[in-house]
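User: I'm curious whether this sequence folds into something compact or stays loose and floppy. Could you predict its structure so I can see for myself?
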Amino acid sequence: MLISTFAFACMNATVKYLININAYQIVFFRSIGTLVFTFTYLIKNKIPILGNKRKLLIIRGLVGVTSMTLFFMSIKYLSVGTAVSLRYLAPIFAAVFAIFFLKEKIKPWQWVFFFMAFLGVLILKGFDTELDSYGLILILLSAVFSGLVYVTIRKIGTSNHPVVIVNYFMVIAAIVGGILSIKYWITPSALQTMMLLSLGIFGYFGQVYMTKAFQIASTNQVAPLKYIEVIFTVLFGVFLFAEVYTLFSLLGMALIIFGLVLNTVYKKN
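Assistant: Here's the prediction. I'll summarize afterward.
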């Protein structure tokens, strides 16, 4: 899981470095880089690429690319550590959506943990004067759509291989990102091209090692560790981009992560 979180943190830092490239173009290259791995895996293992429940797979792809695009856009307005922390509100929105779409229930203590996480958001917005309001709206919308992704994947169930689901997501993201980036296309330099393609590599290996971690260890042991991504990302922000995090911003991020970790552990017991 540490390898996974580090890979995702590297991807976040790379997006921050590519701040002059529009988000649609970043989505396009992020997708192309991952598709090399997903198509190779599916073909090599003779797994049907089209899969089952195709309407849900397409919906998952569209919702996913919306969330990813909003996240990449938000990084241009927020410190990268703050953006990642706020994106992790997605499980809360997923839990609320699950009430309506999956008929699931939220336990009373979960509401307490959710309130703790949102209190962190209020502290970030209320006391961190550097927090950009537009960036905050973008990342919260990203978290909402990410919550919809979780619910859609639950609806898809185990009828499809995980790589089939990822492949659908990346194909749709490549198409949407490619079309929307035409108007804003910036020809990247050789270094920027390498970094753009590296997004797909970081994203793929982050996903692979996260999956492996869940396969060989219990969810209670592994799930809280995924939030280490925030720590790695904050460190990248400080040392690579000279980002400054106030005491209140760190407190807000800590409350968000702590509330979500408690919810993860409590929900699995």
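Summary: The CA atoms of residues 117 and 256 lie 4 Å apart. The mean pLDDT is 87.
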